[in-house]
Amino acid sequence: KLSLSDVEKLTFEKDLPNKSLGYNNKFIWIKLILPIDSSKNLLEISYPLDVVILHARDNSGANLHLVWKETTKNHSRSHIFETSKINKSLPVYLEIQSKTSLIIPIKHGTYESYLRNTAVAQFLLGSFYGILFIGIIFSLILLISTKEKLYLLITLFLSSYFIFQLSLNKM
């Protein structure tokens, strides 16, 4: 396990080629340089990962160690870190681990923009699930009224797809 002092001595690749690191169960370290903009105080990783730890220094030079784990009772699909206490003239390091694919879409923004984007995403997700649920109910009605096996297959397919999407989105 590396400390912040150890990581600061390492050299990093300039850019992530496509923000996807494939499947890997090891801890991955990412170096970020945050723009010095006092209005942007949230760092968001909008992909469900198992462990995300933010390492930085505050304005006094002390180590900040902010941990987000899957066990946290957070119903958001994003990992959110408050960056107002971070010294933005120094790099920030993310320590990331996931048992699934490592895709790392990182955004630095304001709390208002996060809420606005979350509201839009939740509305679209709710619309998707609503349409899927209406399809299940409609195929059930057709199954009951016509007794066709085809509608049983359609109902089973839509129900299993509905459950799959719920598990995929960690709902």
Written account of the structure:
It is a single chain. This protein is of the alpha+beta class and 171 residues long. It is 36% helix and 26% strand. The protein has helices at 4-8, 111-146, 149-168; strands at 20-23, 28-32, 42-45, 51-57, 63-69, 79-82, 92-97, 101-103, 106-109. Helix 2 runs antiparallel to helix 3. The two termini are 32 Å apart.
Cα-to-Cα separation, first versus last residue: 32 Å
Unreliable stretches (pLDDT < 50, length at least 5) are none
Main-sheet strand order equals 2-7-4-5
Order of H and E elements: HEEEEEEEEEHH
| Shape estimate | elongated
- Overall number of strands: 9
The rounded Rg comes to 21 Å
Please estimate the helix content. 25-40%
> How would you sum up the major sheet?
4 strands, antiparallel
Strand-residue proportion = 25-35%
Quick overview:
The chain has 171 residues and is an alpha+beta fold. The chain has helices at 4-8, 111-146, 149-168, and strands spanning 20-23, 28-32, 42-45, 51-57, 63-69, 79-82, 92-97, 101-103, 106-109.
Task: Set out the fold topology.
Layout: H1 4-8, E1 20-23, E2 28-32, E3 42-45, E4 51-57, E5 63-69, E6 79-82, E7 92-97, E8 101-103, E9 106-109, H2 111-146, H3 149-168
Antiparallel strand pairs: 1-8, 2-7, 3-6, 3-9, 4-5, 4-7
Pick out its properties.
three-stranded antiparallel sheet, four-stranded antiparallel sheet, 36% helix, single chain, elongated, alpha+beta
